[in-house]
TrEMBL record:
SUPFAM superfamilies (alphabetical): ADP-ribosylation (SSF56399)
One Pfam entry name: DUF952
Organism domain of life: Bacteria
Gene3D superfamilies: Protein of unknown function DUF952 (3.20.170.20)
Name of the featured protein: DUF952 domain-containing protein
Species the sequence originates in: Ciceribacter sichuanensis
Length: 126
């Protein structure tokens, strides 16, 4: 018998996912009490996140040479069904949040300083 696939149960369920955010935008979100997304998120209709293994490549591709960034760690259990893993870069499944990010789901935020070569120095990730 075939089981119906109403939701993707085979998607990787990470406990923590990550968002790279300009400091200024993040401070505005903190003041408001929720993060609505960066311009690309607003354009695409969901907030882009990365797993720990995807975050470094995301920074290299989309944020190379940019300073004033934060790495934000988010607890996935607090996001419910609005969080979906969908194919993106190279068919890899990326976490996408189809809602605003509540600050209660944020575990920490840390600076992403630039190294001399234009790449970012990542803090330890879980």
């Amino acid at each position: 018998m075939h089981q119906s696939h109403r939701r993707r149960k085979d998607a990787p369920l990470e406990r923590i996912i990550y968002k790279i955010v300009p400091q200024e935008l993040w401070h505005e979100a903190r003041a408001e009490g929720l993060f609505r997304g960066a311009s690309i998120d607003l354009q695409d209709g969901y907030i882009h996140f990365s797993t720990a293994t995807q975050a470094v490549e995301t920074a290299r591709r989309y944020f190379a040479g940019l300073s004033g960034l934060l790495l934000v760690a988010v607890e996935t259990a607090a996001l419910g069904d609005a969080l979906r893993y969908e194919p993106s870069r190279g068919g890899d499944l990326f976490p996408h949040l189809y809602a605003n990010l509540p600050m209660g789901a944020v575990l920490w935020e840390k600076p992403l300083p630039l190294k001399a070569d234009g790449s970012h120095e990542f803090p330890e990730m879980a």
